Amino acid sequence: MLISAWFLGSFAITYPGVAYLERSISGPDFQFNALIFLPHGVRIFAIWLFRHQAILPLLIAHGLHIFLWGHWSPNSWLPPIAGTLSAYLAFELLRMARLNPFHVVISDRSVWGRLVLAGILAAVLNTIILQLTLMGYDGPHGELQRVLGYLIGDIVGILLFVVMLASISTVRELRFKPPEG
């Protein structure tokens, strides 16, 4: 349940500010597009830490996310499945490429780069899956602009999430570092 709480909490924290910015740019034709989707960072982080065990909590969180903030439609189940499975598939592709994406040693700075790489790959896979599965759908997910907005939001979300994690790690290192001398 902690993964679901992280996912929903990260969206609840970013939603008001992102919606305000998008509304001021779009004007009266505002349609929320999540150009900063911090939950994508949570998806990547959860898969990185818990691997396949994170899939069910992420699907539950996505379902609750749509229930609380979205509008349910016949195809509303596709984005949660695409988002969750694209994150897992990205890590598996990196593992098959022998890039060791599951290396969980925070003191190793290359971990942050692997998380960003996995997040970008997952964002691209998510975009491709959504575009292919929802192409004939007349709803908002069928629009290329909307799907590209998801790509941008996912990439910005993972970048922001990794910057936050790296800064927390750096502060902890500085705080608990023994004095020299």
Structure report:
With 181 residues, the protein is mainly alpha-helical. Helix content is 71%, strand content 0%. It has six helices and no strands. The chain has helices at residues 2-26, 39-50, 55-69, 78-96, 110-134, 144-175. Helix 5 runs antiparallel to helix 6 (144-175). The longest helix has 32 residues, at 144-175. It is globular.
Q: What is the overall number of helices?
A: 6
Instruction: Kindly report how far apart the N and C termini lie.
Output: 45 Å
Kindly name the structural category: mainly alpha
The amount of helix comes to over 70%
Biggest sheet record: none
- Average pLDDT number: 82
Tell me how many strands there are. Answer: 0
What's the Cα radius of gyration? 17 Å
Sequence of secondary-structure elements: HHHHHH
Concise structural overview:
The protein has 181 residues and is mainly alpha-helical.
What's the SSE blueprint?
Layout: H1 2-26, H2 39-50, H3 55-69, H4 78-96, H5 110-134, H6 144-175
Helix pairs in contact: 1-2, 1-3, 2-4, 2-5, 2-6, 3-4, 4-5, 5-6
Descriptive labels:
single chain; 0% strand; 181 residues
